Amino acid sequence: xxxxxxxxxxxxxxxxxxxxxxxxxxxxxxxxxxxxxxxxxxxxxxxxxxxxxxxxxxxxxxxxxxxxxxxxxxxxxxxxxxxxxxxxxxxxxxxxxxxxxxxxxxxxxxxxxxxxxxxxxxxxxxxxxxxxxxxxxxxxxxxxxxxxxxxxxxxxxxxxxxxxxxxx
Length: 168
Hints:
Elements lengths: L6 E8 L6 H14 L22 E7 L4 E7 L1 H7 L14 H17 L3 E9 L2 E12 L8 E8 L1 H6 L6
Antiparallel strand pairs: 1-4, 2-3, 2-6, 4-5, 5-6
């Protein structure tokens, strides 16, 4: 059983120029892989190139033009930090519900804007608060219509310590 946190999630779209170096470097990688096309395809992304990011990366499949998003890949470090692994599950299954709503909104906004988006998210609850960052990058198998979203999430140490854990 996992204790449910009652939280408020505030997601703020920020200028990518304000992002930490690793986030900007990943966005630059996406632009290089895109070339002169609208978007890179998932097959253009080489995991070897992304070794420093791998545990914090997710790939989400766009379902029914963005009515939902399903984790095709859920980073192993994220799975270790927030429990459980959400591979194969809808973003709507994330907990707490405020987080699920904030993530869904970020993905919808990225799909609509059809360009990379960088967010800072504040989660606050009774007696605690922490923030994290997320970069969302569109991918398109046909290089024109977004089919997947690649995300990079930077959780800080406080977030890792406060996340609800399964209890025995």
